[in-house]
Structure formats: C-alpha cells, structure tokens
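Slide 14.
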Amino acid sequence: MISNQSIDPGTKNWPENDFLLPEIDSHSSLVDKPENTSTEEFNEFLAGDNTLCIVGYVDSIIGTKTVGRERSLNLFKFTMNNADSCGVTVPIWEDQISKYTSLVKFCEIIQMMIVKSLPLDRLYDKREEGFVNSDLSVQRNTVLNFFGLASEPFIWPEKLMQSN
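Slide 15: predicted structure.
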C-alpha cells in the first residue's frame, strides 16, 4: 500500500506508476450531472421493467415505517421530481434502507440506475397530482448517484400553499 506521503505534490505522480491523479476543484466533479428524465420518459414506465434509469431530485421524504400483517418489513419512501412537475414515489425495502437513508436529502439530485417499476394499487393512484402510475423500487443491484442539491427545484403548488 502506498501512503499519501509518497505522492509528489508538484506532479501528482505516483512514484511506481506513470499515471496522473485527476485534478479536482470545488466547482466541478469528475462526473457531470445528467439531464433530468423527461415527463414523456416518466410516463413510459412499464410495470415490471427493471432496467430503468432516471434522474431527478428528492421532492419529499415520506420516511420509514414497518408494514405487513404476517411478516413485518421495514420500508423507507421518498418522492422524486423531474423539475417539470412530474413525480414518482421511490420505495426502499429492508436491507437497502441502511445504505441510502442518510444520503437521501430534500432537493438532492439523484440518478437511479436499474430501478424496478412496480404497478400501483388503484387506492394510491396520484396521476391527478402529477405522479406517474407506478413506483420505482430500489433493488439490490440498483445504483444511486448523488449530485448535490437542486438549485431551482419545482415546488408543488399544494406544498407552497402549506408553507405560507
């Protein structure tokens, strides 16, 4: 193992290798934030599809609760928005909760890859409120990338009314 003391700070060269460490400043990242998922793409989610990739920001955090009658399961939920007033609920179950609850923050921009689209029960249909008719469930193989806070998030009109 090579310690940080063995790096030449002038060239950022590792002594045993010929590659350079990347230059990083506080105003950029190694990965640029991808574009938000469009409303058209949100509306094309098909139940059962587990290859979805979406980008949006955390619109609200519903929280963690225990659900189930026969077997108790922990569930963490939040909603994402694409900055064009289209939203989706994101449930995270059991062992995945500990990975993400501390990272999911209000207005945090998130790219979710390999999420599964789940059909909604008619009782939870919120299309009239701007939501798609499915949940996007985080799976074991889901990858979440976080890009900081949204600078100009879309605020749902009913949330704006509640804050006044």
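Speaker note: The beta strands are 52-67, 73-81, 87-93, 108-119, 131-137, 143-149.
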